[in-house]
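Q: Structure tokens for this one, please.
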Amino acid sequence: MKINYDFYTGKDEYCDGDIEKKILEYMDKYDEKDFEKVFENDIRWPVFYHLTPLRKNILNWYPFKENAEVLEIGAGMGAITGILCEKAGHVTSVELSKQRASAIAKRCKDKENLEIIVGNFNHIKFDKKFDYITLIGVLEYAPLYTNTDNPFNDFLTYIKSLLKDDGKLLIAIENQFGMKYFSGANEDHTAKKYDGIVGYENKNGIRTFGKEELNQILVRSGFEYTKFYYPMPDYKLPQKIFSDEYQPIEKVLDYKPYTSCNESVNFDEKEAYKDIIKNNMFGFFANSFFVECSSSRIDTYISFDNYRPIEMNEKSDKFFKENYLRENNENQLNMENIELKKENEKLKKDLYNIINSKSWRITKFLRREKK
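A: Here is the predicted structure, written as tokens:
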């Protein structure tokens, strides 16, 4: 494992704040196979998100070709870097943050086929081309780091130039029109309800796309061939993977919806999917996409019948259910009831203060009272 600082500016351009330092402490204390012990005491979402083994499910099913050269753009704290190293001949991971790069190094200290480059991807000079390039939760941030009039297209066009002739780009991204957003979940990046559905308040900021628009952007960027997959409940914590050839039916749609921000939702998305599936619209409303992209015809063969996703151990599963699952929306409804009670108490107090005020008594003759 090697860390390359040649392109590091001396400033970490992206992080989740001080909580990342705590995550680094956990990485010092536990080996990766024991990370789930952390969740017994620390229930914060960033901790769970960066350390849960469920993250690996987005790629542990994908059949990389033997001895592949892989470029991972936006490696974060290394949640999927390890699985890439296990599947590929060599992995080059690019990460903006020195702090996050140190997390990857701790997590993958035994991976001899890994180089970590710290810096802005757009400023790095590569001396080779790759069989695969991954953008897992990265494409939506293109406007922040690609300062052009068409950041998404320009970012993708540059990526294409780094692929071999038969190379593939692998993208994971939320769906702008995912069912969870219709049900009332906050947009993952702006934290606003329905923001993506109505076309985003900030037209030039971080954003995701619907299936057709995303496909059009990819084709314009030189990726003539695309193949869409649908990780559920999303690409962050995949429990099921579907495709256009392997569509869900009601009896296999047994994933567990979750919420990360104590959000309230209006209905059970799994119930809504039932008639969506009957009307052959699942691909439009799926919460996330995983997309294979290439300038050559895609002939990847995948058998989902043999897919065995990573699952949490008993203690972590209990933690997840108690803190993040949306089963019947009971947690959200309870929270809403608590907030309503607080609001009612405030209104009653305000009303009491008004009707017992001097001004209310003085102006009583001006008000008409119903007999």
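A few notes: The chain has one domain: 2-325. The domain at 2-325 is CATH 3.40.50.150 (Rossmann fold).
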